[in-house]
Amino acid sequence: MRIIMTFLAALAVTFAAGAQAADAGKAEALAKASGCFACHTVDKKLVGPGYKEIADKYRKDKQAEANLIKKVKDGGKGAWGDIPMMPNAHVKDEDIKTLVQWILSIK
Predict the structure, then answer these.
(1) Which of 21, 34, 78, 87 has the most CB atoms within 10 Å of its CB?
(2) Rounded to whole angstroms, what are the CA distances from 21 to 1, 9, 27, 29?
(3) pLDDT digit string (tens) for 52-76?
């Protein structure tokens, strides 16, 4: 019985990791389709900061998700320098939430 429980737990972890990878792939495709990669990359500054840098900056901020969702939708200026981030009103709210959650998960 113990072997079966261990196997099922390992299987659940494997499926969860696979689902996270699939979700990350979908989120990255969504970022490309939404035009995010015109100004950002995953791991280095382009026009705006890289997503990894954003995740590192906000990782311990409990309000980060809500604040970043607002900033992505409405645009902003000043958090990363003088170049403003344009509003992204063309992106659906649930897609912005998915993108922000993905960005914050990057390590």
Answers:
(1) 34
(2) 30, 19, 10, 12
(3) 999 999 999 999 999 999 999 999 9
